């Protein structure tokens, strides 16, 4: 048992302590509370895995709760994408809830706070309110409306709700402590006027609750036992608890807010505002562009849910933020894809090779394995003929000693096929090789058991039969940024660090089996990397995205 306790992360230890101190296990409930104002990104995967992981560990329900309090930025599109992302990661929620479910209750509680002298309507502009808060090292200045009669605030608040005032004309503020060293406690705004249609409630409301007011009370209404959030909300905890104290019934569970470190990954940004700029300014093609750190972008790039979950598990739960190397994420992607990806042959920078002593009218089908890591993956037949395509980089007329691919006068094996020897080349007017001419050893077919088939040569090349080749477009993705922390320098626009080589498009050929590929299938283009079919593919043009390169020298510590 002692070893098991040592293995607990600090959030699990908090829960274990609460259980030991009398909290019933049946009272445990968690939630993942996204704001539907953008697509989820790699940073959110940590919060998702933590909350749903705790639900699985303790057999407790986990709600998916959309904190939809700002109709200016929220859309149904984002709600739909968040649902899809959470399901894709492999998690199911107990109930789907929305902060907007509680708008009436939140309003009623706000009226109660006004009646108790704990909230007031302030007619100052937001700039004046901000200025009066001052700094943590000096006392704030009280609003001239702070001590207005309760009846006035009640009347004005109702008229705010009814839409009688313009946006920005007034707000409802909690009356807490204008001298608190915690700036969040200096009479925070609870409601603002927003005459915007809400994606769920339409035009029913002309005022909307601020996040801090809605979030904790929503947790309470859902009886969430542990409200887990990132460290940026640590200074909000006293306000979270103050708001709960105003409505708490001691016969119910009081949610406990606790914070963990956000996850920052090198060469990525996770600010929704900055991600929005990438989309709005056309740096990327959308929220699900495979260069984006969004979950939908990573999925479209070919990352697997299992790889991301394993990555999050390795990163662990920390109390302090640090920068995680993107190579660690890519390591887990490779590790998972190596187990599940079908091996296929594709050539992304093709040059034609003619086997001169192979009959012109002959074609044959050769057996090759689908995945050597999976004994149940089976084999398939690939067509072979006199003319094939190989990678241009796999041939040199004159090669150095350690070049183990094809060169004039030297032999290599064609994967699952024959040993060939290059004899001569043809070039165009610019000196570029257009065709390689070779001969093959007829007795050297792989797996035939002949002496020639067992002859050792230094290299093995992948290839595609020209007669059967499937034209493909290949998107070679690289990191979107040229530096590890593109938004680290506050005075420098992060767009200055965009990698101009983040996408290269190449036209190549694949073996005919790729015709039946779906956007859910993962492939290893042998000796090139891992790929997935893109959603932009058509019957006339198959498009594949590179997920990750085949190898990396990185080894996780």
Automatic annotation (TrEMBL):
Alphabetized InterPro entries for the sequence: aa-tRNA-synth_I_CS (IPR001412), Gln-tRNA-synth (IPR004514), Gln/Glu-tRNA_Ligase (IPR050132), Glu/Gln-tRNA-synth (IPR000924), Glu/Gln-tRNA-synth_Ib_cat-dom (IPR020058), Glu/Gln-tRNA-synth_Ib_codon-bd (IPR020059), Glu_tRNA_lig_a-bdl (IPR020061), Rbsml_bL25/Gln-tRNA_synth_N (IPR020056)
Pfam families referenced in this protein's UniProt entry, alphabetically: tRNA-synt_1c, tRNA-synt_1c_C, tRNA-synt_1c_C2
Stretches that traverse the bilayer: none
Span of domain Glutamyl/glutaminyl-tRNA synthetase class Ib anti-codon binding: 341-441
The keyword Nucleotide-binding belongs to this UniProt entry's keyword annotation: yes
Domain tRNA synthetases class I (E and Q) anti-codon binding: residue ranges: 460-534
GO biological process: glutaminyl-tRNA aminoacylation
GO cellular component, one term: cytosol
Domain spans labelled Glutamyl/glutaminyl-tRNA synthetase class Ib catalytic: 27-338
E.C. numbers: 6.1.1.18
Coiled-coil residues: none
Reactions catalysed: tRNA(Gln) + L-glutamine + ATP = L-glutaminyl-tRNA(Gln) + AMP + diphosphate
Protein keywords: Aminoacyl-tRNA synthetase, ATP-binding, Cytoplasm, Ligase, Nucleotide-binding, Protein biosynthesis
GO molecular function, one term: ATP binding
SUPFAM superfamilies: Nucleotidylyl transferase (SSF52374), Ribosomal protein L25-like (SSF50715)
Family: Belongs to the class-I aminoacyl-tRNA synthetase family.
Name the record gives this protein: Glutamine--tRNA ligase
């Amino acid at each position: 048992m002692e070893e098991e306790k040592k293995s607990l992360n600090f959030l699990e230890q908090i829960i274990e302590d609460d259980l030991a101190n009398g909290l019933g296990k049946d009272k445990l409930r968690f939630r993942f509370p996204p704001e539907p104002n953008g697509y989820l990104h790699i940073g959110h995967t940590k919060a998702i895995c933590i909350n749903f992981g705790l639900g699985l560990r303790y057999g407790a329900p986990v709600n998916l709760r959309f904190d939809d309090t700002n109709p200016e930025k929220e859309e149904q599109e984002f709600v739909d994408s968040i649902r899809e992302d959470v399901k894709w990661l492999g998690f199911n929620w107990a109930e789907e809830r929305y902060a907007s479910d509680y708008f009436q209750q939140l309003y009623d509680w706000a009226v109660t706070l006004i009646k108790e002298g704990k909230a007031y309507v302030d007619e100052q502009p937001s700039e004046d309110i901000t200025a009066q808060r001052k700094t943590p090292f000096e006392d704030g200045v009280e609003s001239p409306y702070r001590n207005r009669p309760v009846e006035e605030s009640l009347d004005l608040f109702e008229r705010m709700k009814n839409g009688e005032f313009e946006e920005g004309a007034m707000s409802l503020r909690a009356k807490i402590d204008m001298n608190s060293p915690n700036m969040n406690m200096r009479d925070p705004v609870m409601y603002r006027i927003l005459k915007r249609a809400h994606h769920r409630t339409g035009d029913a409301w002309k005022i909307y609750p601020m996040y801090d007011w809605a979030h904790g009370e929503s947790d309470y209404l859902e009886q969430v036992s542990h409200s887990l959030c990132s460290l940026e909300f640590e200074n909000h905890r006293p306000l979270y608890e103050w708001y709960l104290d105003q409505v708490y019934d001691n016969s119910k569970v009081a949610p406990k807010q606790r914070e963990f470190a956000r996850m920052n990954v090198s060469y990525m940004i996770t600010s929704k505002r900055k991600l929005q700029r990438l989309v709005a300014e056309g740096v990327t093609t959308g929220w699900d562009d495979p260069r984006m750190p969004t979950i939908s972008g990573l999925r479209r790039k070919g990352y697997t849910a299992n790889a991301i979950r394993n990555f999050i598990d390795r990163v662990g739960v920390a109390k302090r933020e640090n920068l995680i190397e993107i190579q660690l994420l890519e390591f887990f992607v490779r590790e998972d894809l190596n187990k599940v990806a079908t091996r296929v042959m594709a050539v992304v920078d093709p040059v034609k090779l003619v086997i001169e002593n192979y009959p012109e009218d002959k074609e044959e089908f050769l057996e090759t394995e689908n995945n050597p890591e999976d004994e149940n993956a089976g084999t398939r037949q690939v067509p072979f003929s006199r003319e094939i395509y190989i990678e241009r980089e796999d041939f040199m007329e004159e090669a150095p000693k350690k070049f183990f691919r094809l060169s004039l006068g030297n032999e290599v094996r064609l994967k699952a096929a024959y040993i060939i020897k290059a004899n001569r080349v043809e070039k165009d007017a610019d000196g570029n090789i257009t065709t390689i001419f070779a001969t093959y050893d007829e007795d050297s077919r792989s797996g035939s058991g002949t002496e020639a088939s067992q002859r050792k040569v230094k290299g093995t090349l992948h290839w595609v039969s020209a007669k059967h080749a499937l034209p493909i477009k290949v998107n070679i993705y690289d990191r979107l940024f040229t530096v590890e922390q593109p938004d680290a320098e506050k005075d420098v626009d992060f767009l200055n660090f965009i990698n101009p080589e983040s996408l290269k498009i190449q036209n190549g050929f694949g073996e005919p089996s790729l015709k039946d590929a779906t956007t859910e299938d993962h492939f290893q283009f042998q000796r090139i990397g891992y790929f997935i079919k893109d959603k932009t593919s058509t019957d006339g043009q198959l498009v594949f995205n590179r997920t990750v390169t085949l190898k990396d020298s990185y080894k996780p510590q």
